[in-house]
Amino acid sequence: MPEDPSRIALVLGAHGGVGGETALALARHGWTIRALVRDPSKAPRRADWSYVVGDAMNRDTVVAAAGGAGLIVHAVNPPGYRGWNRLVLPMIDNTIAAAETNGARILLPGTIYNYGRDAYPLLSEESPQRPATRKGEIRVRLEARLEAAAARGVRALVLRAGDYFGRSARNNWFSQALVKPGQKLKAVTYPGAPGVGHAWAYLPDVAETFARLAEREADLPVFARFHFDGQWDADGTAMTSAIRRVAGAPDVPIRAFPWGLLRLIAPFNETVRELIEMRPLWRQAARLDNRRLVAFLGAEPRTPLEQAIRETLTGLDVPLSVTARGTRGVAAIRAVP
C-alpha cells in the first residue's frame, strides 16, 4: 500500500535524544518515520524506519527528503554547543523551505533560553523574550522565523521545555555534569545554587507530548506554542536525592559544579564558553507555565521521577546497586493535570 502522506514524519536529528524519542513516540501513534542522517553507520538502524542520507545544512536535500511528509521534526542542533551562530539559523531556514514546499507542519523542541531574568520565575508563552545570552538571542530569532513563515501558511509547533534528560541523551547537563556515563556513581555534581528551583524535562514525556499534539492537527493554529512543565525541582534537591536513591548510593556526596575552573578553560574551548553563559539559569528559578498545554490536551504526560531517572541511568550505563536493580519496573507515562 502507498504511504499516507499525512502520516509520514521526517525527523532531522533522529539519532539524537530529542529526535530519537520523538520518532519513537510518533511511531507508537501510527506515524511512518523517515530519518535524515549524515552517516547511517554511526547509529543503529531500525527496520521500521526509512533513511535518507544527507545534511540538514543542504536545503535541496532537506526539501527532497520531506517529499510527501506531513510532519518535519526539527531536532537537529550543533553538537557540544559549538557553531550555534553559524549553523542554527541556516538549518531552520532549510526546514522552513521544506515545509513550505511540501505542506508539512514543523515540530520544534524549544527551550527557556529565550527568556531573561525580567520574565522569571514563571514563564508563559507570552512572557517577554529579552534573553541575556547569545544562545537565547539565536533561539528568539529562530522562533521569529517560524512565526514569519506562518504568515505565508507554513504550519509550525514549538514546545518549550527545561533541561532535557533521558535514556538516549548524552549531550545535556544530566549526563555531562550530574553523573558520568559508564561509571559507578561516586558523587553527584550539581550546577545550581542552593535552594534555587530548576526545570527538568524527561525526553520520553516531551516526545509523547509532541505526538499527542500532532494528533490534534485539526485543532492547532498555523503557529502554535506550548510550555511543558516537566519535572520541576523546587529547591534543587529533588533531582540529586532521587539519583542517589535510584542508584542505591544514598551516601555519595553532592558536589558543587566547578564554575571557577571552567572560566580558566573558557578562552580555549568554545563548548565551555557556551556552558558558562548558561550559568544564570542555575542561579535563578525559571519554571514553565503549562496551563495552555493542559487546557489543550487535558493533561501533561509525565513519568514518575524515580522511574525516569532509573531509565536514564540505565541508558547511560551507570551501574545500579543490586538493591536498586531489584526495584526496577516498567516505565509508565502518566498524565498529570
UniProtKB/TrEMBL annotation:
Database matches in Pfam families: NAD_binding_10
Name of the protein this chain belongs to: Nucleoside-diphosphate-sugar epimerase
InterPro entries: NAD(P)-bd_dom (IPR016040), NAD(P)-bd_dom_sf (IPR036291), NAD(P)-dependent_oxidoreduct (IPR051783)
Organism: Aquabacter spiritensis
Segments forming domain NAD(P)-binding: 13-108
A GO cellular-component term linked to this record: cytoplasm
Example GO molecular function: aldehyde dehydrogenase (NAD+) activity
SUPFAM superfamilies with a match to the protein in the record: NAD(P)-binding Rossmann-fold domains
